[in-house]
Design brief:
Two copies of one chain form a homodimer. The first copy, chain A, is an all-alpha fold and 200 residues long. Helices cover 68% and strands 0% of the residues of chain A. The first copy, chain A, folds into two domains: 39 residues, Arc Repressor Mutant, subunit A; 138 residues, Tetracycline Repressor, domain 2. Chain A binds a DNA duplex (30 and 30 nucleotides) through loops.
DNA sequence: ATAGTATGCTAACGTGTGTTAGCGATGAAT
DNA sequence: ATTCATCGCTAACACACGTTAGCATACTAT
């Protein structure tokens, strides 16, 4: 009889969650079936329900697991005594690290949150809105301090966050540059733009 | 008996395609059912098949319709006698315009192309890869001409294209700035970065 | 008015879905 | 060795899906 193989630090549920994230990323939440998931875990579909409540629960846990990490980081950064630009750079760096380290989960949260069902859906959307508002507030601080040029703050947030989402394509690419080089490039471009400037 | 209402310039199939794009955008390709589509068109599900071959066909036509427009623009821009930076600006502007004008279709192409089936899938992926290569080539020209700072060109392409995809969130936002202001902001940020520079 | 085509309807098909019930096997604790 | 909870299996459920067949209705052109 097959068994879900676990290592010391992760329960059977966590194994399922990891495989689910990978599958949801690959096929999309709706297209990934519980039978697919079962196969990738090495077990029959019904057996999954000894460890999880439902398919939706998997999506909840993935989405909120990631979202909570971002919220936590936001609180941390807001409290630091550094300039707005440095805060933004810290956040970007965190986003990139998260995307590289927890690729599947972050990707799934980004693209599949639509399939959450209420009350989780509204909850998620609220949290997202709040996060962006606080990000925009930091940008606006930078603008009043004249460290950031007078742009529309929420547009800037959109650009930053979605640009980072683009790491998805980097992650798949065969001829990748290193993660460090990628991070350096992104920050350089997002903070300084692509145009050559007098400063260097 | 219900009938699909058409205006002078669009066939019934085109009406279905438009509604399909809107539905695929809202729910995702897999989650949107033919019965949903039928209802939004004002007809029974089976009746759709007098006008279309299959659900997948709808996705093909949406994806390649948009992709072809981008490819065509790329060819046009490549042929113009302007600087690389101007070419990039022209392409960004086109992307933004397309996103604003054909929001649903562009969004669906961007997020739902995974559900294409071969040979359309490989075709699409090839075309996408080519487009990005040609975009990167323009950036590299700009780098050799020292109009663009020495960054990794393919990373820059990722950032640019994904940043534009972020208009999705703008499109939904209640308190939006105008399309012109958005475009100006985006180009300013992407070309010049967010940091205040000596140049102004 | 009539013929022919375009369009729509109802009914149904086969298949895949998430999930549950009930039972057998395994592992841990006494 | 026995007990008890944990875990996995088979079988099946009710339902939603994309799609087809066959027939009825509406429009178009003569």
């Amino acid at each position: 009889m097959a068994r879900i193989i676990i290592d010391k630090n992760s329960s059977r549920k966590e194994v399922i969650l990891t495989k689910a994230a990978s599958l949801f990323r690959e096929k999309g939440y709706k297209a990934a079936s519980m039978r697919d998931l079962a196969e990738s875990v090495g077990v029959e579909a019904a057996s999954l329900y000894n460890h999880i409540k439902s398919k939706t629960e998997l999506l909840h846990e993935i989405c909120f697991g990631v979202a909570n990490r971002f919220m936590h980081k936001m609180e941390e950064v807001e409290g630091e005594k550094i300039s707005p630009i440095e805060k933004i750079e810290a956040l970007i760096r965190f986003h990139i690290d998260e995307m590289i380290l927890h690729y599947e989960e972050v990707y799934v949260m980004d693209r599949e949150w639509k399939h959450l069902s209420d009350p989780y859906l509204s909850n998620f959307q609220n949290q997202r809105r709040m996060y962006r508002k606080r990000f925009a507030a930091i940008i606006e601080q930078g603008i009043s301090l004249k460290n950031i040029k007078p742009i529309d703050a929420s547009t800037a947030v959109l650009i930053l966050l979605h640009a980072i989402g683009g790491i998805e394509s980097w992650h798949r690419s065969t001829q990748k540059i290193s993660a460090e080089a990628l991070t350096a490039n992104m920050i350089s471009i997002l903070i300084g733009g692509i145009a050559a400037s007098a400063k260097g």
